[in-house]
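Researcher: Please translate sequence to structure tokens.
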Amino acid sequence: MSQKLDFKSGDRVVYPAHGVGQVSGIETQTIGGFDITVYVVAFEKDKMILRIPVNRATQSGLRRISSVVDIQKVRETLEARAKISRGMWSRRAKEYESKINSGNIVLVAEVVRDLHKNVDDPDRSYSERVIYESALNRLSSEYAAIQNVEQTKASDDLMKILSIRAANRNKKEAA
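Model: Translation complete:
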């Protein structure tokens, strides 16, 4: 049996496949002769509304937005050295997609950190660019929700953290 989450209208939540949304209400719907209570979650950016059964919310990955403590873990992750993965891109791409869709903000930060190294490379593949942008979008939207700032400001803050890491790495290499 799944654990029930208690959200109320107005709560900001994260749904792994879509990012940050807001509970706009709780409804009871009759489907196939059964009454099902659902969270109505609005994703403003995507102009989408999702109805998630209350008794399946935990299994679907619906969760509250991360805490300030989690943001510190994100910063530490972004400041850490990027993991250089060798091997086939298709396997790494699946791993990155899995991390993005996990809903775990620290795993999403790992994807951003690891793929940021090639951000200015004109020869970077289209799929790598799409995965990077997807991870950055998810991370910056939750970061913005936690910090209560616009997503562009959150994205700029994340880029500053990554550029400081790169500058420190270049200083070490030059020494």
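Researcher: Any highlights?
Model: The two ends are 58 Å apart (CA to CA).
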